[in-house]
Design goal:
9-stranded mixed sheet; rod-shaped
Length: 304
């Protein structure tokens, strides 16, 4: 139909052939094939040239509309591939929201203002499914770097745990605390069962003890309240601390400092998307400049 459009536009088979880079014979053959398919003549002689019949004019109008839609599709595709438009779906967990996701989204809006960002809290029991099944482009999770269950995990930062003590605790006068010094203390649980709690327990095991939990709060703010009431001590990651309770004292832990590793989960086979690349770099920038400092290997990873 685009050949017919060229012939009608130029009024000549020869001129259309020159415009399209075909031979006049090839153009005539294509017109003949189109007329056979349409079941009627599409062109008629007009002096030294040709003009469209009613059927030819009708098909030419449709060809014009198709050409416009193709051009629009090409423009839309170019905009999508360049990151001028599109949609980025993000899953995250609560304590990563303010420190990592919010500044990363703000930077992405500056770099790619035409991209829509969908933000949802990840399922704490299964944070990877949406990424694996294509409902999300990226998810922030806690765990170990590598590949798992059809996703690729990239390290963003290690979020160190801090010791949270009652205000008058004997260790509160210290600038930093050795984790082993908390071995005989009653503990307030601050984590749901999962990788965050696993990181705490592994650090305590490395220090030679298992915490004796007297309260399970599974919430950082609630855990601080129990500590403030004198029920025990706890560990809270720096990103999850927020504003400390007025009746607790927060102290750094001496090396080796326990930390939870925050990762970006991606589909390995997903095509490259400029907005996704920019969002990951923005997350890394937020991680590097935030409250939780990446370890040396994390810094090297961000440089790659």
């Amino acid at each position: 139909m685009q050949v017919l459009r060229a012939v009608v536009g130029t009024g000549s088979v020869t001129a259309a052939a020159a415009r399209l880079g075909y031979t006049p014979s090839a153009v005539s053959q294509q017109i003949a094939a189109l007329e056979k398919e349409a079941g009627t003549d599409l062109l008629e002689r007009a002096g030294r040239g040709v003009r469209p019949t009613a059927a030819g004019l009708l098909l030419t109008e449709h060809a014009d509309a198709i050409a416009r839609r193709v051009a629009e599709a090409e423009t839309a595709l170019a905009d999508l591939l360049a990151g001028r438009t599109g949609r980025l779906s993000v899953r995250y967990f609560a304590t990563a929201g303010a420190a990592l996701v919010a500044p990363a989204v703000a930077r992405l809006r500056t770099l790619h203002p035409g991209v829509q960002v969908e933000l949802r809290l990840a399922d704490p029991q299964d944070p990877l499914t949406d990424v694996r099944e294509g409902r999300a482009d990226i998810a922030l999770v806690v765990g170990e770097e590598g590949a798992r269950d059809g996703v690729r995990l990239l390290r963003l930062l290690d979020d160190p745990y801090l010791a949270v003590l009652p205000k008058g605790h004997p260790l509160a006068a210290r600038r930093s605390v050795d984790l082993a010094e908390l071995a005989d203390e009653p503990w307030v649980g601050s984590e749901w069962p999962g990788p965050c709690l696993d990181a705490q327990l592994a650090a305590c095991a490395a220090a030679g003890f298992r915490p004796r939990f007297v309260v399970d709060s599974e919430d950082y703010l609630t855990a601080q309240g129990f500590v403030a009431a004198g029920l025990g001590v706890t560990l809270i990651p720096r990103l999850g601390l927020g504003t400390p309770h007025p009746d607790v004292t927060v102290r750094r832990l001496k090396p080796p400092t326990p930390a939870r590793t925050i990762l970006a989960a991606l589909r390995p086979a997903a095509p490259a998307q400029p907005p996704l690349t920019a969002f990951i770099e923005s997350l890394r920038e937020a991680a590097g400049g935030g409250g939780a400092a990446p370890r040396q290997d994390a810094r090297r990873a961000t440089a790659r």
